[in-house]
Amino acid sequence: MDILLFHSALGPRPAVDAAAQRLRAAGHHVRVPDLYGGQTAGTLEEGLAVKDAIGRDELLRRAVLAAAPYADKGLVYAGFSLGASVAQTLALGDAKARGLLLLHGTSEIAPNASVDGLPVQLHVAEPDPYESDDWLTTWYLTMGRIGADAEVHRYRGAGHLYTDPGLPDYDEEAAERTWRTALGFLDSL
After folding, report:
1. CA-CA distance, 76 to 55, in Å (whole number)?
2. How confident is the model at residue 99 (pLDDT cuts 50, 70, 90)?
3. Based on C-alpha coordinates, what's the Rg of the chain?
4. Does the predicted model carry a pTM greater than 0.70?
5. Which of 7, 43, 127, 184 stands 20 to 30 A from 52 (CA)?
6. Pick from 90, 95, 158: nearest CA to 124
7. For position 166, what pLDDT does the model report?
8. What residues have CB less than 8 Å from 49, skipping those under 6 apart?
9. What is the spatial distance between Cα 17 and Cα 83, in angstroms, rounded to a whole number?
């Protein structure tokens, strides 16, 4: 499977490379675009400042350019938090997308979005300060309305970026369950 994996607002941290290596070890071809041009952040506030300085339109432009050489093959789009938002935006706009793997985040869905059975898997903390229960219910129902085959996995007590061992949010048990489930999802595509 060809996977495009987008980093969080913290930038291309070691945990993103480790995730890519885990996916490669399972037989997948993984590309990890650096949407921040080499910048990383130590805190969410710093990361959001980098994101804001670059701008959402520019981040999406960079993501589209990263996907363009491979999109004809039928990519699986994946991402962490902010990167999940980017991955979702690209997958919903790519008729050849093979799947969407969201870790720690979602995004608004355009009113005119439409997909034909796109497999989607979301992994998110419960509760999550950035993904409220009401938001997730609306997101899930909207994904179904536009034709996606979405499933949501919640991890009670985990922090927002619970798969990143370099952060205080890290939850080893939740992270391992996430990766087992995600790898099964990818194998099914």
Report:
1. 24
2. very high
3. 15
4. yes
5. 127
6. 158
7. 94
8. 41
9. 14
